[in-house]
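Invent a record, attention on tokens:
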Amino acid sequence: MQDETIIPEAENNVQLEQELLTVVNDHRNSLGLNQLEFSVVAYKYANKHTDYMISKGSLSHDNFSARASSINSEVTVQMVAENVAKDYDTAMEAFEGWYNSSSHKKTMEGDFTHTAVSIKKNVQGEFYFTQLFYKE
């Protein structure tokens, strides 16, 4: 029997990630806001957090300050924010869930320059989402 504390890193659903980035940027463009640039640094930390949430089996913003500091140690940023989600099957469902939450919507429409989204599936087949935003 496999040790429950050792969870192999889940694979990214790159197609869903790209779709969600496009949907968020299309929404921002419709409001006259700048398009967010993809950030490899944000992607690295989004992936780590998605793996963490999968290992815990729940959504969280645990260790957000450490994530923001880590991003800032690699890219000088003015501010960092994140949205997390779980149990959506499509990029549009995740976007709509965030859009219908005032705090998540505010983040998606915020004064940011860069973003990355990590979407991975747990062993039960449930998707976990982490989108990080920052402004240089």
About this structure: The longest strand covers residues 127-135. DSSP finds five helices and four strands in the chain. The beta strands are 37-38, 79-86, 114-121, 127-135.
